[in-house]
Amino acid sequence: MDKDSEGEQDIRVKEVKAKEETATSAATAIDAINENGHGPMCFSTLVVAGIQPLPGGNNDPTSRQTSQPGAIYVGSNGLLPGQLLLEEENPATTTTRETVTMHSTSGTQDDTEESLAVANLVDQDEQVHQAFPDHENARKRRRDSNKKLKTNILLAAILLIAMGTIVVTVTISASKKNTDPDEEVPTLPPSQAPTSLEGSILSLFSDETIRAIATEDSTPQSKAWQWLWEDQDSLVSHSNDRIKQRFALATLYYATAGNDWNNNTNWLNHSIPECEWYTKPDFATKAFTSSLYPGVLSGFLEPMPTTNCNQHGLYQHLWLDRNNLVGSLPEELYILTSLQTLSVGFNAIQGTISSQIGALTALEGLGFASMGHNGIIPSEIGLLSNLQVFAIDANDHHGNIPTDIWSLTNLRHLSFGVNPRLQGTIPSSVGKFQSLRWLLMDRCNITGTIPSEIGQLSNLEMMTLTGDRVAGTLPSAIGLLQKLRILSVFGNLLHGTLPSEMGQMSTISLLGLAGNQFSGALPSEFGLLTQSRVTLSFRNNALSGTIPTELGLLSQLAVLEFQGNQFTGRIPSEFGKLSSIGRLTFANNSLSGTLPNEFSALHPSLHTLALEGNPLLSGTIPKAICNMNATCAGSVFLFDPCDMQQGLSFDCTGVLCGCDDECSCF
């Protein structure tokens, strides 16, 4: 080796040693920085000093790249403006990734090679020791110092994030104020700034109510709030419950055009306690249905309450049926959690049943019939475990009947009929409703079958499924309903034979089986139904055989319909004993023989006799029948015979004639 080569090698060795000493100095400097450290770090990788220039001296920002994780880049003058990237040891392996790489600022290829030769990535502790035997202790100190450095930086980062969040929030708030200078902040009447009393009272209400109070003077809530403050003395003397109650009632008044109610006596009169404000003297559902179905409502909400409020002056009964309420029920109505009965039916009230109904857990009676309500029935109804009366007839509810309703086993009156967009079934769990007296589900798309468990409703007085889509057969267990007065299944898809057990329903007043697909013979046991004013309708089925003569024993029978079946044989002469009969129809069957002379005795009460569509009938119509002039007595529950054809109708043929010259007999 020549002298020049030896000299060049010496220079390089000295440069390497100098750079090695620089690395040691960097580690020592880091130790000094971390003397005030607070413990080891948990970061996997942390960039401290920026972006290291690429080997070759290209400082163009577009040419920069991130260095290898775990490398410390230093130079002859200490830390360069590059990266300090630290990677903690992988707990799954013993490999230590701590490397010191030194780049010369000259940017030459030789310098790069030298740096890599001195600070090559080392994967084993053995190799690190061989490469840097004099700095094993320094390496350990650097590792400890790095952990302390990580802790310091983490704490600083957390502090910066917290401060940044506060700054951003304040900036956004200020921005909103600056960008929306015309937006008004709602103020609470009656004063511009709430007093301590106002704040205390406002805290009694929900956020939605407070917004409604504050946003507009025209809302029912805002009007009720202003009314409340007209008598500030009462705000001091009344309990919180009384204050909420007065506000809720005032909101109801304004929300339903209280000035136009049929009767609003004493309402919003500060000098008269709200318990003395006008309400109906009777639960309207009872008053209304009692007039339609006399004698059916025994024990319905008995005994009827005699006052609106309890001893604490809190409403228990609010009845405003048929009182010209127009509008919608406010959510504040459900503040009245002491209510036991609420009846506002037969008014022009729009909207839906609020899910807040579930807050009225003391409720025993709910009358929302015929109001124009729509929407689904909220499942929160199932929370009203004390409910005895649930009447939402004649509205426009839709969706499925909530299954939660069938958990209310204290119900005595369940009525959601005439809601044509509802749908549902009768579950077998209906047998648990031992107190149930009314089950009204007509014209609300009930499907499925009538479960045999229906026979367990020993107190049932009325069941209507008119105009639904119930299929299957009538269970024989229905004959166990000894208190049943009205059974109407008009216009369904029922089929099969009629159970003879139905003859045991001795209290029946109306039995409507028309418009189904019943077949077979008519059981003679129906002759046991001796209850007064009975209506029996078998029309428009597929019944066959002869008409049982036993039906002639029902001396109080008002309506008896056989038309539209396949009956054969003679018309029983025993029917001449039906002294109360008003409507008697045999049309469109295959009956034969003559009209019994005994029918002449029916003319005092008979107003309709239909014989057409029986080509095998013969003889002469008795003159007393030709001259019948009785007046239709009116509707019987869901069936109104006066809406149908009245008078005598028969096919005048060569074998059946009478009554006038146009149908003279030859």
TrEMBL record:
> Which terms are listed as keywords in the entry?
Leucine-rich repeat, Membrane, Repeat, Transmembrane, Transmembrane helix
- Where is the chain membrane-spanning? 149-172
Keyword Transmembrane on entry:
yes
Which residue stretches belong to region Disordered?
Answer: 1-21, 93-112, 176-196
* Annotated Polar residues bias: 93-109
- InterPro entries in UniProt: Leu-rich_rpt, LRR_dom_sf, RLP29
PANTHER family from the UniProt entry:
LEUCINE-RICH REPEAT (LRR) FAMILY PROTEIN, LEUCINE-RICH REPEAT-CONTAINING N-TERMINAL PLANT-TYPE DOMAIN-CONTAINING PROTEIN
State the name under which the record lists this protein.
Leucine Rich Repeat
| Source organism of this protein record | Seminavis robusta
